Queue: 2 jobs
Job 1
Amino acid sequence: MRLFKRNWKNHWERVYQKHTPTEVGWYQADPEGSIKLINNTGAGTDSRIIDVGGGTSKLSMHLLEQGYSRLTVLDISGKSIEKAKLQLGEKAGMISWIEADITKYSLTEQYDIWHDRAVFHFLTESEERKGYIDALNQALKLNGYIILATFGLAGPKKCSGLPVVRYSPETLLKVLGDNFNLVESVAEDHVTPTGVTQNFIYCRFVKQL
Ligand SMILES: C[S@@+](CC[C@H](N)C(=O)[O-])C[C@H]1O[C@@H](n2cnc3c(N)ncnc32)[C@H](O)[C@@H]1O
């Protein structure tokens, strides 16, 4: 059976049923790398931002605190969305939530900023990456930005028990396609809750004609 045929939803539902938001390896108290690149776009607080595979990340909470008011969080796991809403309390009502597999989903809105930390690198099959990039091209506005954080070339080969693809800014650009240009990239050493250091790259690309 090819990996693409496996049921990723069941995997992620189990992860979020079993672990609290602060136990997962990708937990960050302060998603400062993502926030810096979002702020670097110069986008106003009325910009439409989508966090793809947002899970129980604190990014949406930090963005709400900074005044960003048109936020969407999409995730394949309904359990992660339930837990993310609980974390936010009544502020959860300020966010649009979508439970969907981004590799097979057509967004109906257009966004100024597409953010993804630690989702794209799980797409090890070309069909999955094509589904993701089709959704991206359909939903990201012209001159909009995608902020992609993946494991770097020195990063782990697996995460959450799943194989990943490791990237450099150049290989990410190649997979995104000719209509994207690299604006900036930053390396980050993420330390997991159990003390393991993981090499990430954060890249900001602009969508052009
Ligand atoms: C490693 S976690 C990262 C979560 C969050 N971005 C963060 O940085 O804390 C990966 C997330 O992507 C979600 N995910 C995995 N595959 C997905 C897919 N095909 N479509 C939407 N979400 C997906 C998982 O449920 C999980 O929340």
Job 2
Amino acid sequence: MSNGWDDSAAAWIADMGEEGDFGRACVLDAPMLARLRGRGFRRALDVGCGEGRFCRRMRDLGIAATGIDPTDALLARARARDPEGVYLSGRAESLPFEDGAFDLVVSYLTLIDIPDIRAAIPEMARVLSPGGTLLIANLNSFATAGGWAEDGDGTRRFRIDDYLEERAEWAEWHDIRVHNWHRPLSLYLGLLLGQGLVLRHFDEPVPHGGDPAKVARYRRVPWFHVMAWEKPGSRAAVPGEG
Ligand SMILES: C[S@@+](CC[C@H](N)C(=O)[O-])C[C@H]1O[C@@H](n2cnc3c(N)ncnc32)[C@H](O)[C@@H]1O
């Protein structure tokens, strides 16, 4: 069954622009980029790179980034925007790379898009080198378990239900219509811990700009978290450094 990404690609590209949408421009880019600067990353894999915006940000920081994504129209855009970049067709569940090929693996709002998360997270850990970092931005599980609705007194409140039930639902906004997975946080954390990864950073970033109404709504129900997980082991010395 289609996950909606082929049909939504044009609307997605329009919505992103070069700055990203509200969640990226006003909430996530700053803390995600802060986890990259000055840490000596050299080879990054962006799993579910979409139209390549975050690969371009990594390139700007001097990190050689490979993007992988199953949606051809998004990959075509990524290649057009960054002809020197490496953008491959593929899925997180079966990554076509050797063990330990990258010292940084990024999942920027893609865990909710990946159908077989039980295959994908071990794959992300496998291609990470010892000492490497898996940097994740994801939707909060309480956010994917519910939605805004009006109470009897007219007040808008966020209602959560069936939190522990893993499920895919259609999400629609700005002419984009895609399958998003809801999974309880314990499922994601259990898979990450099960790979022996160590949590080094966790944050629920607050918006630092944007439409005040959106910011107020976001502060009532924060949509995103950022996590940095480390693979145990020493990072290989880079020839000519140190
Ligand atoms: C919400 S978008 C995020 C794109 C990009 N990371 C960004 O932040 O702009 C989710 C992306 O996941 C991709 N995707 C869907 N299924 C996937 C899978 N099985 N493996 C890897 N990526 C997948 C989609 O094609 C889409 O580009």
